[in-house]
Amino acid sequence: MGKLMFITIAIAVVSALIGERIVNLRKRYLASRELVQNHLPNCELLKNMENGSEDITILGNGLAFISSGLNYPGFVNSDSPGKIFFLDMQDPQMKSVEVRMPRNFDVESFNPHGISVYTDPNDDTIYLFVVNHPHYNSQIELFRFVEEDFSLVHLKTITHDLLGSVNDLVATGVDTFYATNDHYYTNKIMKGVVERLLAQPWTNIVYYSPQDVKAVSEGYYMANGINISPDKTYIYVADLLDHNVHVLERKEDNTLVPVKALALGSLCDNIEVDPDSGDLWLGCHPNGWKLIMFDPKFPAGSEVIRIQNIHTDKPVVTQEYADNGEVIIGSTVAAPYRGKVVIGTLFHKAMSCDMK
To answer: For residue 203, which of 21, 69, 219, 223 is within the disulfide window of CB 3.0 to 4.6 Å?
Structure first.
C-alpha cells in the first residue's frame, strides 16, 4: 500500500511539474496572442522564393543575399537542399536569382541559417558568412562573392566546441565574427524537448577569430538574431523567448558589456540595421506557439518591428507590419533599403513592401 501511494504521489508531482512547464512555455511563446492586420503598401511576393528566406542582408549598393531552405528540427521543412539567392534591390522586377555554388562544396547537405556580409575596405572584396547545419550540426561557411557571374568561392569551414548551436552571426572582419548560440545542448532530444520545457537562460554570444574564441555574453533564454551598429561600437542581440533586444558595448578585447534591454512584446528573430539612420528592423513571430504546433488552417502570423533612437532614453518601438498568416507565414527578418523593406520567412515566401 505504501509503495503504491509513493508511486501515485511521484506521478502526481511529475505531472504537476510538466504541466507548470507547459504553461510557462505557452507564456514564453505568446500562445494566446492574436494579431490585428497592419499591412504595408505596394507589397509583392518575390519570384523564385518558395522554400523560406530565413535571413536577408542588403549591401549599400542594393545587392541583397538571402538564405533559403532551412531544415530545422521541430518546424515545417523543405525537402530541397538549401540555397543562397541574390536580389538586386534596384531592379524594378525584384527577381531573386540563385547564386551558383562552388563545385568543391557539399550542396546536398547545405542547410543555411543566419548570414552576414563583410566588405573588405582594402579591396572591396565581398565575404559571405553562412551558418550551416549539415546533418543538424553547426558550422560556419566562409565564401567570397564573385559579382561578375553571381557565384561563390568557398574559402573555409569554421567549427569550434563553443559554436555548438549557432543561429546567427555578424561579421567584423574577413575571418572574425560574433555568433549566437540558441541552445545550450547539441543533442536533438535535449535541445528539442528537455531544454525547451525547462526554458532557462542558458544561451550565449561567442566571439570568433582564428587566434581567439570565447564566450563574451551569457544569460539569454534563446539568443537569436545579432547585428552591429553602423559605427561598429555596439552589438544588438534578440532574445527570442524573453521578448526583448539587448544593446551591448564592444570593448577593445572584443568582450561585450550590457548597456540596456528593450521589451518588444514579440518573439523577434533576425535584426537588420539601417546604415543611414541606425534604426533596427526585426522580423518577429507574434505567436510562436502557432509556429511550433503548425496547423495550415490556423497559420503562424508575421510581424515587423522597427526601433528608432535605441541609444536614447526614449527609444521608439513601432509595429511596421502585421499579418495573421493569410499573406505571409512565420516572418524571421525585415531588411530595409531606400524606402522599401524585404520580409523573409522561416519556410514560407519572401515579400517586398513600400515603407509607410
So the answer is: 223
